[in-house]
Write a structure and sequence with these properties.
By secondary structure, the protein is α+β, with helices and mostly antiparallel strands. Among the domains are: 21-73; 128-185. 51% of the residues lie in helices and 11% in strands. Strands 1-2-3-4 form a 4-stranded antiparallel beta sheet. Strand 3 and strand 4 form a beta hairpin. Helix 5 (131-147) packs antiparallel against helix 7 (162-191). It is elongated and about 85 Å long.
Length: 192
């Protein structure tokens, strides 16, 4: 006695696999419609491939095995080189956007200027940043100046070199750090 559903479905291995590039797009899925099934009667028996024509959309296509043609190695190489070129162009555009962002420098107001400001301006003014933040910003700006092509093209040798400025900022930073450590130590001893 043959039980229902005991029939074994034999099928051939698929000709194509996940991720392969075809002339219709990238294969992202596989389906097999076995003979003597409703889907096979409706759509035809065999392998079906889910293909994504454009990776930037959700639209997918379902193709029969005989509708699929893999890209040749040369076509695949050309496609990948085009993608690389597009990505490099995007990276270059992003770098230009990044370079276009102006460096901001916060200059604290003198007490005389502060007294002259009206109340509305004072309510929107930013507090003075910590000195070590300004020192770090100055070091960064000096490094950028030293690398700038216009600076490198100058035959000008200033009395204070970039190295001198960096050294002075390093001394200032060391002094700030030692003062902060001394303040921390004195706060601990007062609490004890």
């Amino acid at each position: 006695m043959v039980r229902p559903f005991e029939e074994t479905f034999w099928f051939t291995d698929p000709r194509f696999g996940f991720g392969q590039q075809t002339e219709r797009g990238t294969i992202i899925g596989l389906k097999y419609y076995a003979s003597d099934t409703y889907l096979a009667d409706e759509y035809g028996a065999g392998w079906r491939y889910v293909v994504l024509p454009d990776k930037n959309t959700e639209d997918e296509e379902h193709r029969l095995e005989d509708e699929i043609r893999l890209l040749t190695p040369q076509e695949l190489k050309t496609q990948i080189q085009t993608q690389i070129s597009n990505h490099l162009h995007q990276i270059q555009s992003l770098k230009q956007e990044l370079d276009a962002i102006p460096a901001s420098v916060v200059i604290p107001h003198s007490s005389a200027e502060t007294k002259l400001q009206d109340q509305t301006q004072q309510s929107y003014s930013l507090p003075c940043p910590p000195l070590h933040t300004l020192v770090d910003a100055a070091k960064f700006i000096i490094k950028e100046i030293a690398k700038h092509p216009d600076y490198l093209a100058l035959d000008y040798q200033p009395d204070l070199t970039v190295g001198d400025a960096q050294t002075a900022l390093s001394y200032l930073q060391t002094e700030l750090e030692s003062n902060q450590q001394a303040d921390t130590t004195s706060n601990i001893s007062v609490q004890s």
